[in-house]
Amino acid sequence: MKNKRIAALIAIAIFTFMTFFNLNSPLWLFVVTFLFYGVRMGLFQSPNNSVIMSSVDQQFLGIAGSVNSLARNLLNNYCYAFCKEQQK
User: Fold this and answer.
1) Which residues of 33-45 are buried (b: 16+ CB within 10 A; e: fewer)?
2) Alpha-carbon dihedral of residues 7, 8, 12, 17, nearest 10 degrees?
3) What is the SS3 assignment for 37?
4) Positive or negative: CA dihedral 62, 8, 80, 22
5) Which of 27, 54, 72, 86 has the most C-beta neighbours closer than 10 Å?
6) Domain range spanning residue 27?
7) pTM (predicted TM-score)
């Protein structure tokens, strides 16, 4: 439970930083933000994948993994597009 709270706080910080991004943003801002994003994904994604994969029959592990990855990537792309649209 503690890891979920930490991951949520890091996600809030990341999205707050992302609101300040524009074409003139310094490179260090991108590096720091995506560094925190990677840490958040590491804290949340491993336990989440473990729970999902342990609840699926062995014959469906490939399908479950690919659907999980597809959902994660689609939602990430949607969130980036949404945040970028809100900046306009």
Assistant:
1) beeebeebbebbe
2) 10
3) helix
4) negative
5) 72
6) 2-87
7) 0.52
